[in-house]
Amino acid sequence: MRQSRRMSLVEAAANVVIGYGIAVATQVVVFPFFGIRITLADDLTIGLVFAVVSILRSYALRRLFEVCRR
């Protein structure tokens, strides 16, 4: 069954939203161990940048594999 472009984007976004929460929580816990002290707002912003990149990456890979499947 073929996945539409829209559903590829929805799947990629859902994956990244969940990953965003995990990444920010991980940053809050791990950064202090490395002496990195930043605000929660900075953690959220850093996470957001990586989330956008991840959505684009996931979507592009999903579409590439869809083309290869045909």
From TrEMBL:
Keywords recorded for this protein, A-Z: Membrane, Transmembrane, Transmembrane helix
Record lineage: Bacteria, Pseudomonadati, Pseudomonadota, Alphaproteobacteria, Rhodospirillales
Keyword field contains Transmembrane: yes
Pfam families: DUF7220
Name of the featured protein: Uncharacterized protein
Domain of life per record: Bacteria
Annotated TM spans: 12-38, 44-61
